[in-house]
């Protein structure tokens, strides 16, 4: 298809909006793809809309290929839908709400688990109608506290959301089969979009297990950290990433003291780095002891035991996590290692229970039984350690596990070595002994989940199986940020002059730049060329504006169409046109007019 | 493409929802196309979504053909956008509003004149960038007071809205050229959708002239009345329809009395029909005098004069419209005949000014000069007339114009014969002398307007022309109800068994019904057949459910796929399949499997 610049709206500008920092926000604005209408609310101009339609089309083809059927649910959802799942409360301010003329309240759909569950619940009557996968490509609404980075975090955005329904998990027709099909479809989508991406294991939230993956577009400007094992290909996000074995040199809690335990007065220092500087101790030789409160009833531990199974009558109230000063605690790992749901201890309660928050040391456990202490292997060895002193404005030097904490160290009911921190660059790979994890930055563009029966249980969606037994329906859900994918592509593919679109999602494949828009010979050449390109299945934009060539070339680089063909007197006199790939620096080459379509096709793949 | 019933969601039912009355609401619900989620809010299930996508695609192709570029504006529009046009107030309760976490208010777009004007205003700088036509296919939101008839009047719906921008009206690049292109595109859209429709002249609101057309799908269940001249092809909606010359027999206001003016006591009768019954007078022999209040300043009359031009110092305060008791007054015609903006007189004010509302007669004008009386030609002749008596609970018989109202009748400043009522079946055609208007019912699916500078003026959107003069930008706007078109098609195309889709917008072209879903030979035949049909460019649904044939046939009629191919033992033994067109009653015919695709293609056109 052929469009003309003057028949569409591409308001390129030299200046980016004042609030634009990320490359995609700057470039999509400057290149006339998007325009801010309100906080986190953007117009998609014709170029953006063409790219979004191409991304959507790829998504649709892959969803259809994964056996999902497309539908469209309303954006406006009666708030009563959320009654059973309580997400009206859980979402909080994130949920936009509308009150109608009769006082009825609707939410603007931030995602559609509830309405799709209500639809399928009301539509199917027999287990024979499962499995079923449904999807939509739809505008979603979320009242983000801090909309930013243009389309990367906005309040109205386009998302593909899919949902699958099953009677069982394993085998034909089960959740795992659909999940695997979606996993493959997602890989196909982002591959076909021309993106360099990583599928990472992710925390799945309330379901547990390895039942969630995120798809990350690799880009240095990404706000998420990805960890990869270059040998095994294992990849995970920072919340999820396991760390390989870390043997403790000399055995855990078994070293000789590095010196006398010495108290140091460290008044009013705001953080571990300031304290370390003051004490002349590096953060990696300091112990950070984080106090969590155990909430609810214990989940089973990995080994199937809970504290009470192990014969300890007293309940756990506190979970202490001890890690190196330069590491970050990982709440999901703490939860899974402790077997308890945990929350960061509220300061007031923790103080009342004897924890001097900000100055807690492992020594605080001596003489009490209401705790479980998790110790990261990196701090269980010997050598010099600094720590809090369990006393405001004081720290200690020469902390020694055996001397300070004593006999309880051997009791798995109270103290456990465990991986409880975020992985970092250089950590051992959890899959390949000897290999080391490397880190990268990514932008999350897709996320797939095994939901289990969370929603069907909450909404009373059961089905009779072949034995006439009621069963909870098992679900999966699968999201792709369509508008986010466009922005992520720009984050990954640009240079100082503008965007560089992958061919599959470029608004047009070829830009024909006319040096003289009003010249009859140029116009005829442009039209003939465009017709040939369109016949070759390419989408063509003709820059027919009455502007100087310099302006046109700058705009061409800015909007990032993969191929630019320039019609000028010199080449035209020889029956040629200048061919230039956007991704290649330097000057173009003259090709015969008749050869241009094949040359473009070859480059575009 | 080939889909399987069991892989999609088509929850057919025997019963329609309790509130469903219109055929499209009943059938789309029963056939599993839509499901009500809230008041005026519907899920589009996979079949509906396929039809909606096909309608949208036709719309897109025709919009592109008319030179418009597609984009997508947000649904959530900062309320400040409406400040200048005051439509936040004019829309009133129709506008859904959302308050965000910071207290900022947004409207959910009911249509997008303001944001598109704001976008184009902010994007173009030179008259050289005009004309420009832009469109989107988008979900719109309107808080209808009485959502009804399923998708025909709902609160969240899909609309194509286009807008054009110009520096001038006539000639190349002008509004009229774009309007005409849109008019042709609209005709193409509805023709391609396989609909029987009428393009009618419509009231254009604030702009005046003949600058608006509605596209009506002809259907007896339609809520709009269409009038057509079968000779000239003239068609208009009831608000707009002109009426041809109606000469007054014996001359206007010129007859001899039918008898003595006689007052009749008509206590507490609620309406003209009850009064007529009581007085034994048919409504068509009664005068209805409606009192309007003139508001604002006078517009120019058709002849270019206003009351003050005509030398009458006093202003008009009241416009009286006198029509036959069985006719309906037409406010637009009253406005245009009087040269004044008018509103129905508030009862309290009218009473204070001496109008006994409910009992007003033309006689009320005697002795006053603050009025203009418009008289419909149908009541200006002689014979018997009944009328109000300008006195509560009283009417008169034998009203005679000359006797009762007198000399002022000849003064065009005070009394004017004019077409001021809605046209009705049998009225003279305004285009062909001797021809009579016929009426029909229609469902409005498209509306195109010449807006002029209404929005650009309100929003301060001017542009410098080639002489560096500031000019208001001239706009047109063009809407198609996409979801309404689907429903209108069902209103027009159905029988007692279900929907009958036109091929172009059917969710699938061909339904393959397997008599035995589990039979390997049937399955193989179905697959081969489906592949052949898909190769012929047809969309195929295979009914692979384990259901009785009777259930499948009933469902096939209900969902209305144009062709049903039935795979059964008998035909299959002879290498055949039963072919049945949904629109043809009676039984199907057996065709060779290999001939089926060509036969389908031929029927589908």
Keywords:
homodimer, 605 residues, alpha+beta, 9-stranded mixed β-sheet, 6-stranded mixed β-sheet
Structural features, described:
- The structure is a homodimer of 605-residue chains.
- Chain A is an alpha+beta fold.
- Chain A has 15 helices and 32 strands.
- In chain A, the strands form eight sheets. In chain A, strands 4, 8, 9, 10, 11, 12, 13, 22 and 25 form a nine-stranded mixed beta sheet that branches. A six-stranded mixed beta sheet of chain A has the order 1-29-28-30-31-32, sandwiched between helices.
- Chain A is globular.
- Chains A and B meet through strand 2, strand 3, helix 2, strand 4 and strand 5 of A and strand 2, strand 3, helix 2, strand 4 and strand 5 of B.
Summary, kept brief:
Two copies of one chain form a homodimer. The first copy, chain A, is of the alpha+beta class and about 600 residues long.
Topology:
The structure is a homodimer of 605-residue chains.
Chain A: E1 2-4, H1 23-30, E2 34-38, E3 41-44, H2 46-65, E4 69-70, E5 76-78, H3 87-91, E6 97-99, E7 105-108, H4 113-123, E8 132-141, E9 156-166, H5 175-192, E10 197-201, E11 212-218, E12 224-228, E13 235-237, E14 262-265, H6 272-279, E15 287-295, E16 318-324, H7 331-338, E17 341-344, H8 347-352, E18 371-375, E19 387-388, E20 394-397, H9 401-405, E21 415-417, E22 438-452, H10 454-458, E23 462-464, E24 470-472, E25 474-481, H11 482-492, E26 494-495, E27 498-499, E28 510-514, H12 520-535, E29 540-543, H13 549-559, E30 563-567, H14 569-573, E31 576-581, E32 589-592, H15 596-604
Parallel strand pairs in A: 1-29, 4-8, 16-18, 18-21, 28-29, 28-30
Antiparallel strand pairs in A: 2-3, 5-7, 6-7, 8-9, 9-25, 10-11, 11-22, 12-13, 12-22, 14-20, 15-16, 15-17, 19-20, 22-25, 23-24, 26-27, 30-31, 31-32
Helix pairs in contact in A: 1-11, 2-5, 2-11
């Amino acid at each position: 298809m052929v469009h003309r610049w003057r028949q569409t709206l591409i308001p390129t500008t030299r200046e980016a909006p004042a609030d634009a920092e990320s490359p995609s926000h700057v470039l999509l604005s400057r290149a006339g793809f998007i325009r801010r209408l309100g906080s986190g609310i953007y117009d998609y101009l014709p170029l953006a809309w063409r790219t979004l339609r191409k991304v959507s089309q790829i998504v649709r083809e892959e969803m259809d290929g994964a056996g999902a059927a497309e539908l469209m649910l309303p954006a406006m959802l009666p708030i009563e839908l959320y009654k059973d799942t309580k997400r009206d409360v859980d979402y909080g301010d994130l949920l936009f709400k509308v009150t109608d003329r009769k006082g009825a309240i609707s939410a603007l759909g931030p995602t559609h688990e509830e309405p799709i569950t209500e639809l399928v619940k009301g539509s199917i009557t027999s287990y024979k109608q499962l499995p079923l996968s449904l999807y939509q490509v739809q505008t979603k609404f979320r009242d983000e506290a801090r909309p930013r980075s243009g389309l990367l975090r906005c309040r109205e955005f386009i998302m593909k959301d899919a949902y699958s329904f099953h009677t069982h998990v394993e085998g034909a027709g089960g959740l795992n089969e659909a999940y695997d099909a979606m996993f493959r479809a997602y890989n196909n989508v982002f591959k076909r979009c021309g993106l360099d991406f990583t599928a990472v294991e992710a925390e799945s939230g309330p379901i547990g297990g390895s039942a969630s993956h995120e798809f990350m577009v690799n880009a240095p400007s990404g706000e998420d950290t990805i960890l990869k094992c270059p040998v095994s290909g294992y990849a995970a996000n920072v919340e999820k990433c396991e760390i390989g074995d870390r043997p403790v040199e000399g055995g855990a809690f078994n070293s000789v003291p590095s010196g006398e335990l010495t108290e140091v007065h460290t008044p009013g220092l705001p953080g571990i780095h300031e304290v370390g500087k003051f004490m002349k101790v590096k953060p990696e030789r300091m112990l950070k002891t984080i106090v969590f409160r155990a909430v609810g009833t214990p989940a089973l531990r990995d080994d199937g035991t809970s504290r009470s199974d192990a014969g300890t009558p007293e309940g756990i109230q506190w979970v202490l996590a001890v890690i190196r000063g330069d590491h970050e605690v990982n709440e999901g790992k703490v939860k899974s290692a402790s077997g308890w749901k945990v929350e960061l201890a509220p300061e007031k309660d923790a103080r009342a229970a004897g924890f001097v928050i900000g100055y807690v040391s492992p020594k605080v456990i001596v003489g009490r039984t209401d705790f479980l202490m998790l110790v990261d292997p990196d701090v269980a060895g010997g050598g010099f350690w600094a720590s809090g002193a369990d006393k405001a404005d004081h720290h200690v030097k020469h902390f020694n596990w055996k001397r300070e904490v004593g006999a309880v160290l051997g009791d798995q009911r109270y103290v456990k070595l465990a991986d409880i921190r975020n992985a970092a660059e250089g950590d051992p790979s959890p899959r390949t002994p000897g290999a080391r994890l490397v880190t990268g930055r990514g932008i999350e563009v897709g996320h797939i989940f095994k939901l289990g029966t969370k929603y069907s249980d909450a909404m009373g969606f059961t089905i009779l199986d072949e034995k006439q037994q009621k069963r909870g329906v098992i679900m999966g859900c699968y999201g792709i940020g369509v508008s986010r994918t466009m922005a992520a592509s720009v984050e990954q593919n640009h240079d100082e002059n503008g965007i560089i679109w992958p061919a599959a999602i470029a608004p047009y494949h070829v830009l024909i730049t006319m040096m003289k828009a009003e010249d009859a010979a140029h116009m005829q050449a442009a039209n003939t060329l465009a017709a040939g390109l369109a016949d070759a299945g390419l989408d063509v934009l003709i820059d027919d504006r009455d502007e100087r060539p310099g302006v046109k070339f700058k705009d061409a680089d800015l909007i990032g169409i993969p191929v630019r063909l320039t019609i000028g007197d010199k080449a035209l006199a020889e029956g040629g046109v200048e061919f230039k790939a956007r991704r290649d620096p330097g000057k173009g080459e003259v090709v015969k007019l008749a050869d241009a379509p094949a040359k473009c096709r070859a480059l575009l793949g």
